[in-house]
Automatic annotation (TrEMBL):
It is an enzyme of class 2 (transferase). One of its GO terms (molecular function) is ATP binding. The lineage of its organism: Bacteria, Pseudomonadati, Bacteroidota, Flavobacteriia, Flavobacteriales. Its main location: cytoplasm. Residues 67-146 form the GHMP kinase N-terminal domain. Pathway: Amino-acid biosynthesis; L-threonine biosynthesis; L-threonine from L-aspartate: step 4/5. Residues 207-284 form the GHMP kinase C-terminal domain. This is Homoserine kinase. GO terms for biological process: threonine biosynthetic process. PANTHER family: HOMOSERINE KINASE, HOMOSERINE/4-DIPHOSPHOCYTIDYL-2-C-METHYL-D-ERYTHRITOL KINASE. It catalyses: L-homoserine + ATP = O-phospho-L-homoserine + ADP + H(+). InterPro entries: GHMP_kinase_C_dom, GHMP_kinase_C_sf, GHMP_kinase_N_dom, Homoserine_kinase, Ribosomal_Su5_D2-typ_SF, Ribsml_uS5_D2-typ_fold_subgr. Belongs to the GHMP kinase family. Homoserine kinase subfamily. It is found in: Cytoplasm.
């Protein structure tokens, strides 16, 4: 009647795939407990780590749970405990981990009536509360793992993309908060056709590179000419981190989701740790507090 789950952090956009591409960070995430209760409805029983609302209608995990609860007909309820490790506003899918965790756990307790795409649809409602718009590029990799591409929201269609065997991510999180809603408001409503061409060429070639284990092409494709020029200004020492990581043999560097976290991809754990060191060298001179994670992408 109770399940403990780990709900992973994720990197959305992956440079050229704004709002559609994302990957899962297996070793970073939140812990949650979901429990059946005699009392009907959805209740948030405990939240640790960060100060978040207990009212289910105002809580990301609560809103996605309510969306699922409305779609089922049961004479019991659920309570949710959230042990949050992913800082809200960090750019590694904090709200998505909450949104996905509650519906994943409920689905397990119900005997899995819903598939992962259906779970994503419920979770979109929770994610929308946090970012004020519907997008699934963090939710899908949190549920499916690895790399995913959200082909369309309506109808919801998610594609799983294979990951080369030796692909690692190094993610740095400077300890400032950027709200997704604010970071979206910065973006232009229209983009020049020439930039759009560059961006979709990069996205197509990145997806091809992931399918064909072509590390060099992964690196050549990790460019974002549309969003990064606007958002990088919010991230302290973004260009310095980028140059240091590339010098340490990162295949590519970009903003993780809506920032301020920065992700880098590389081949092999040794390089990933060298990149970690190079980024530490940049930030430790600036007085900015930061956290760094190295993880294999599965
Ligand atoms: N695709 C979203 C954005 C991810 O960049 O705004 C952040 O939640």
């Amino acid at each position: 009647n109770e399940i403990k789950i780990f709900s992973p952090a994720t990197v959305a956009n992956v440079a050229c795939g704004f709002d559609v591409l994302g990957f899962c960070l297996d070793s970073v995430g939140d812990d949650m407990v979901i429990r059946k209760t005699a009392k009907k409805g959805i209740h948030i029983a405990n939240i640790e780590g960060f100060d978040l609302p207990y009212e289910a209608e105002l809580n990301v995990a609560g809103v996605s749970a309510l969306a699922m609860y409305e779609a089922i007909d049961v004479d019991f309820g659920f309570e949710i405990e959230i042990y949050k490790n992913i800082k809200p506003g960090s750019g590694i899918g904090s709200s998505a981990a909450s949104a996905v965790g509650s519906v994943f756990g409920m689905n397990e307790l119900l005997g899995k009536p819903f598939n992962k795409t259906e779970l994503t649809a419920f979770a979109i409602e929770g994610e929308a509360l946090a970012s004020k718009c519907e997008h699934a590029d963090n939710l899908a990799p949190a549920l499916f793992g690895g790399f995913t591409l959200v082909k369309s929201l309506s109808p919801l269609k998610i594609l799983e993309i294979p990951t080369p065997n030796d692909l690692y991510a190094t993610i740095v999180h400077p300890q400032i908060e950027i709200k997704t809603s604010e970071s979206r408001a910065l973006l232009p409503k229209e983009v020049p056709l020439s930039d759009a061409i560059t961006q979709w060429a990069n996205l197509g070639s990145l997806v091809h590179a992931l399918h064909t284990n072509d590390y060099e092409l992964i690196g050549n494709s990790l460019n974002d000419v549309i969003v990064e020029p606007y958002r990088s200004q919010l991230i302290p020492y973004f260009n310095e981190v980028k140059q240091a990581a590339l010098k340490a043999n990162a295949l590519g560097v970009g903003i993780s989701g809506s920032g301020p976290s920065i992700f880098t991809l590389c081949k092999g754990s040794e390089t990933a740790n060298k990149i970690k060191q190079a980024i530490q060298d940049v930030y430790s001179k600036t007085g900015i507090d930061f956290e760094i994670h190295v993880t294999k992408i599965n």
